[in-house]
Amino acid sequence: MRRTGKKSLNEKGYVSKTDTFLKEVNDSLAKQLKEQNGINKKKDKKMPLVAKIFVGLVVILSLGSGAAAYYINFVLDKATIVNADTEDIYIPVSQEVFEQDEKKEDAIEIDPEEVLWGKLSKLAKKEEDVVNILLVGEEDLGEEENGRGRTDCMMIATISKKENALKLTSLMRDMYVQIPGYSDNKLNAAYRNGGMSLLEDTIELNFGVAVDGYVLVDFDAFESVIDALGGVEIKLSEIEANYLNSHNYISKKKYRNVKPGKQILNGNQARGYSRIRYVRTANGLTDDWGRNHRQRKVLKAIFKEYKSKSAVELVAMLPDIMKLVTTDLSKKDMLGYIGLILSINADKLQTLSVPVEGSFTTPYINGMSVLLPSLETNQEKLHQFLFGTEQ
To answer: Which of 18, 19, 58, 90 could bond 14 through an S-S bridge, CB–CB 3.0 to 4.6 Å?
Structure first.
């Protein structure tokens, strides 16, 4: 993962003694889960995901306060945590880029000056019982200016205590939005232009939602997570399978051997599948809609795989998962949100895509094929989904 301009807090050079301790903790977890809790593998896999995590945490705590604290710190230290004191200010790009697309025959070309944004709320909405974390997948574009690519995947993960629910909102990368301090552009240009802070400001300006923190991964990390799980089950249509086998979306040629129907995709294959834009999904979606649909499908498959793992497996995987993460959440924040998730029903995800159906047009602006949303309509729908209110 590129971390240009950032300083890591977890570069502590853990030695083999720490790894030995971790193995001893995991072995102890397995033994205690079997002996103290009487959970065999078959029964354990039927437990809800939240229950498994809870059992794992209980057993960690049963190791003793000192060992438990050590293990939890070990896991959290695997993430790269950045804040105002440790993160250098993102240097803005010297030249804006407008991602050029081929103009569709039926697309209407619009002058950027003719776009009317309408009246929006000046205050970004925030509620104490609703936590909104921005999840971002960064494109790997090589040596982009300032070491940043565009954001290929942007989602808001919501923990709603008042509704006892987990929610996932997909933000379409091709939405044409206002970017503070820059020209209007696709949403995925905000991160490239000014980093995570500018992306958060852009979301707050256009959709009136305050972001409580972010989690950033790149697609190499995406692959690693799926491989750590043993792959994910995805159903491919014949046209999707043929397309993946004949194009470079699956970057490693040896894995271009997928087939139509249900199958287990490894990380490299799932990454390729989630990035397809120019082939229709089984339910007829194309372009950014199709890619967004596939990304959500892969995330749901990942969630399903997590639920199939035993409590011991879940706890043992945490260090490897956390080291793929860059976040501005503190350890205290992360522990608090974990506790909040454990207090609600996390077995089902509610989902939404923005812009919502019927709330946008598809013009051609500045050489780009974009989704031009009615921001007022989408702000109302998003607030209703996240907070249960339109204002």
So the answer is: 18
